[in-house]
Amino acid sequence: MKNIFTNNPSSIIPVKSYSNAFINKNAILLENKNKSGIYLTPGVRINKLNGNSYVGGGLNLAKRVGDYYKESELKRNPRPIHAALLKHGHTNFTLEILEYCKADELIKREQHYLDRLCSQT
User: Fold this and answer.
1) Distance in angstroms (rounded) separating the CA atoms of residues 51 and 75
2) C-alpha span between 100 and 102 (Å, rounded)
3) Which of 24, 29, 39, 76 is least surrounded by Cβ atoms within 10 Å, i.e. has the fewest?
4) Is 0.90 surpassed by the pTM of this model?
5) Is 41 helix (H, G, I), strand (E, B) or coil?
6) Distance from the first to the final alpha carbon of the chain
7) Distance (Å, whole) CA 118 – CA 44
């Protein structure tokens, strides 16, 4: 799946939003267990410091997003979102669930959001 940073997610209304990825960690993991869907910035999150966003998807959002809370995973697999989380901390990120969808629709729906967000930049 493709994942990118963008700086204009304002026209998309999420189905769930967690204003502080650090404080809301338990709710994020519990409420998204065994649910497939698309998220904004890891499997995410909006960086409150610079406005950058990251679009991703996962078959099990709790597992996918849960990896972002593991420092060893962030360091093992360097990606821009991992570097941002290590640098700025989870407190500076908002996690938004853009939609829940069936597993066989994940790639199509993720591309839909990537296309929408990229067309706004």
Assistant:
1) 22
2) 7
3) 76
4) no
5) coil
6) 21
7) 16
Q: Report the Cα 38 to chain-centroid distance in Å.
A: 8
**Can you name the residues that pair with 18 across neighbouring β-strands?**
95
Contact indicator for 107, 62 with CB cutoff of 8 Å: no
- Please give the CATH superfamily to which domain 5-119 belongs: GIY-YIG endonuclease (3.40.1440.10)
Rounded mean pLDDT for each run of 10 residues along the chain, 121 residues in total: 45 86 95 95 51 85 93 89 88 91 96 81 52
| Assigned token pair, 12 | 């998309």
Residue 73 to residue 57: CA distance in whole angstroms: 17
Q: Could you state, in order of their start, the residue ranges of all structural domains in the chain? A: 5-119
